[in-house]
Design goal:
single chain, alpha+beta, Adenine-n6-DNA-methyltransferase TaqI, Chain A, domain 2, five-stranded mixed beta sheet, four-stranded mixed beta sheet
Length: 265
Amino acid sequence: MENSKKGSIPYITLPMLQNYQIPLPPLPIQRRIVEILDKFTSLVSSLDSEIALRQKQYEYYRNKLLTFEEGDEGVEWKSIGEIGRLVRGNGLQKTDFTDKGVGCIHYGQIYTRLGFSCDKTLSFVSPELASNLTVIEPGNLVIACTSENVEDVCKSVVWLGSDNIVTGGHACVFKHHEEPKYIGYCFLTYSFFNQKRKYAYGAKVIDIKLDKLSQIKLPIPPKSVQHSIVQTLDTFESLIANLKKERELRQKQYEYYREKLLTFE
């Protein structure tokens, strides 16, 4: 259908809509097509509900497993500065990206494109530029120190790749010797959020200073407990990821059959 434009906003006039032709097979065929497509939409809807349920379960157990009280046996409450070292990033613009070279994480990718953890980067920079940027080692957390809202500031990604990579400005790297994913999960808890909210500042742009971030306290149980918690939460993460893949597949199937069934010569 041809449409008209007024300025930059596309629009369709009533005569255009009235003159648009659609294929009308016999009613039994229409009903059969609807029946088939309804099964796909029902399946996609069921997967959406299952994903939402599993997400709630995951969040419940994540906060339950990572909630400790002062004085709990074997658990030490330590500030981030006591647990490890925060290193401020510097430089790195999107215009610095190259097709290959040294892997890099731009701060904006942390809360837009990267998930909880990753072992591959979306971008690269030249070795020459990388030598002047902040190094991320396997197991380090990369933290966004700047965002547009309190929810995203301090969002982090756990680097699980085998090589050193780099990051730049508006991000920092947390170097430590604890279970990497355990620390990453701690950054998702209510306790962490309530603490960072006290230190975040700004209006349109929200920032947090490294000296304030280093004061936030995390519960540090023995490594064996950290590992057990990570295994449990990883099971939920894996289940949700598989459900999302299944949902994406079913959506593509639906769209394929919708076009196939509604295409007439």
